[in-house]
Amino acid sequence: MRFSTGQSRISFLCVLAMLLSATNLVISPEASAKPPTDRADKGCGSRGKSKKCQQNSPPTLSGTPTGTVLESSFYEFAPDANDANGDPLTFTINNRPAWADFDPTTGALYGTPTAADVGRYDSIRITVSDGQATARLPDFAIDVTSVALGSVTLSWVPPSENTDGSPLTDLSGYRIYYGVDPQDFSDVIDITNASLTSYVVDNLTPNTWYFAATALNSSGVESTPSTPAARDVY
Q1: CA–CA separation, 173 vs 218, rounded Å?
Q2: Would you tell me which CATH number, out of the four given (3.40.50.2300, 2.40.37.10, 2.60.40.10, 1.10.1020.10), belongs to the domain 10-32+148-233?
Q3: Contact at 8 Å (CB) between 227 and 15?
Q4: How high is the pLDDT of residue 45?
Q5: Residue 194: helix, strand or coil by DSSP?
Q6: Of 18, 65, 69, 141, which has the fewest CB atoms closer than 10 Å, so is most exposed?
Q7: What are the residues facing 152 on neighbouring strands?
Q8: pTM
């Protein structure tokens, strides 16, 4: 495969410890998606638009929530929000877990679940508004798990060349995705040391866990993920 933009791409062979076959990872040229925005039509119709309405920029919201938390452990996630116009921002949440609190001035979700809260909390949505427009994070889930018992060791062979055959000189690291659902990984680990060839993922509860890995270059371009590898933790 080649970049449609003419740039070189990394061809990365990633071998996870529990796999019997290797998987090729290929850099994707697609940029990361921006959070969707919804504009509120408050006095900004096609007629009589005010200067303020015409120049308003919607706020931005970003961040990756941690997808798991152990019972009796403190959980906290605070998104990064910005507004180009400097408008005051307010935050709302849908499907907040009962064991967690939410700060409408910062968007922070935090709390300490108990053994009675063990389970999965789906479709959590955090939205920010500047009074005229909104932005939101993709819906996410939090798994409250019992005491962790296991770990999995992942290993791989570092890529050495781009798909066009030229030497790879700007490998910057790797990214490991994992969770109990291979279609919706709940956790991400960023590895900034490009010389590493293995990593131990710990604090895993008894379950079937799925893992996939990508490679990144110095420009932050990420490869397509490997085929998910499964490992049972007892």
Answers
A1: 8
A2: 2.60.40.10
A3: no
A4: 53
A5: coil
A6: 18
A7: 201
A8: 0.48
Task: Report the pLDDT averaged over residues 215-222.
Answer: 90
Half-sphere exposure of 20 (CA within 13 A, CB side): 0
- Residue whose entry in the numeric block shows the structure tokens 């680990």: 189
- Which tokens belong to 173? 């690291």
The candidate with the shortest Cα–Cα distance to 162, out of 52, 26, 16, is 26
The DSSP 8-state label assigned to residue 53 in this structure reads H
Tens-place pLDDT, residues 173-218: 999 999 999 988 989 999 999 999 999 999 888 889 999 999 999 9
Q: Where are the domains of the chain?
A: 10-32+148-233, 37-41+57-137
The CATH class, in words, for 37-41+57-137 is mainly beta
The H helix count followed by the E strand count for the chain is 1, 20
Nearest C-alpha neighbor of 52 from the set 62, 60, 42: 42
Per-residue pLDDT reduced to its tens digit, 25-50:
444 444 444 455 555 445 555 554 55
Query: 3-class SS at 131?
Result: coil
DSSP state at residue 133: E
Bridge-partner residues for 132, per DSSP?
none
